[in-house]
Sequence to fold (262 residues):
Amino acid sequence: MSSRATWMSLFTVAVGLLPTAMAQICTPEDGYRYLVGRQSDLDEITAKCTTVNGSIAMTVNYTGSFHLPNIRNITNGLRWSLTQLENETPETTSIDLPDLEFLGGSLEISDISTLQSFTAPKLETVEWAANIQCTQEVDLRSLVDLEYLTIIGNISSLRLDSLRQVRQDMTICNKDGGCNPVQPPSNSLNISLPALHDAGHIFLKGRFSDLATPNLTNLTGFGNGFYNFKLLTAGGPPINVSFPELKYIQGEGLWLEGNISK
Ligand SMILES: *[C@@H]1O[C@H](CO)[C@@H](O)[C@H](O)[C@H]1NC(C)=O
Ligand SMILES: *[C@@H]1O[C@H](CO)[C@@H](O)[C@H](O)[C@H]1NC(C)=O
Ligand SMILES: *[C@@H]1O[C@H](CO)[C@@H](O)[C@H](O)[C@H]1NC(C)=O
Ligand SMILES: *[C@@H]1O[C@H](CO)[C@@H](O)[C@H](O)[C@H]1NC(C)=O
Ligand SMILES: *[C@@H]1O[C@H](CO)[C@@H](O)[C@H](O)[C@H]1NC(C)=O
Ligand SMILES: *[C@@H]1O[C@H](CO)[C@@H](O)[C@H](O)[C@H]1NC(C)=O
Ligand SMILES: *[C@@H]1O[C@H](CO)[C@@H](O)[C@H](O)[C@H]1NC(C)=O
Ligand SMILES: *[C@@H]1O[C@H](CO)[C@@H](O)[C@H](O)[C@H]1NC(C)=O
Fold:
């Protein structure tokens, strides 16, 4: 990485009036994004910054783990950078954002077939969309609300404990669309959405072992789906489906299909 971070907190330190928890805002040299090709590029950012004023983009030659401690705020997005060579993708094995709380744009993490896990346990807000594909573990336990949520892959572990609102479309698919279309997922997925209160549309497809939506109250119809709630489950045990709090559906209603016991 060639860009050198702007270290805004130098001024604060010099003045010496504010506590050390002051945000250290770093702006990429091009005003737009940090291009990272390896962990050491990330280490350079995390050594100095708590806020990235812009985006972070992996280059296609990124390999191995992507570990970004210390950063609490990325004002734009996180993605990987496309090149003219269509078949090139990074070979990232894990993405770990242990301190991130806020993301001002979108998470766009798809087509990385080597990816095993995506974890951002403190991330509360994604201003636009999270699109996470081709991974086995997703931990977004603090995420509260966003516009679009898409999680697709051979997923065996999913944490969405705090998710309260998906303003438009929510898709969870563990039937491996695109990542490995030949082999079905080996594990059943337990979908637990204890806090979900409202969503535009919900589409769930795969091999599920459980589904809980105890607080789902309003299916608002915003977004692009047809059915407000569509569930297709196959290959797993029979699951119970109930909507104890569902009161308002604006649109085409529910479609449930597969191994559902009640
Ligand atoms: C953030 O980056 C923009 C350029 O994209 C710049 O105009 C602005 O001053 C930066 N904000 C801070 C707080 O550094
Ligand atoms: C990745 O490619 C960029 C050029 O696109 C190069 O500058 C960088 O050194 C490469 N990184 C690795 C780890 O090979
Ligand atoms: C993230 O950082 C930007 C730029 O400093 C700031 O405007 C925004 O309020 C921050 N968001 C949070 C939730 O800290
Ligand atoms: C799916 O994930 C499980 C671990 O949860 C792994 O054992 C299995 O090999 C994966 N299958 C494919 C096709 O990647
Ligand atoms: C479910 O909704 C109720 C009432 O709005 C709220 O008190 C409770 O905390 C919610 N449960 C979760 C797990 O968020
Ligand atoms: C699914 O996960 C929830 C929350 O962790 C748990 O309460 C429930 O028992 C699990 N269901 C199954 C079938 O394992
Ligand atoms: C359900 O959501 C729609 C769309 O946001 C809204 O117009 C309506 O008031 C909501 N209903 C309730 C009872 O919250
Ligand atoms: C489904 O409901 C039945 C009857 O209430 C119950 O015996 C069974 O344990 C439930 N299964 C799950 C996975 O919750």
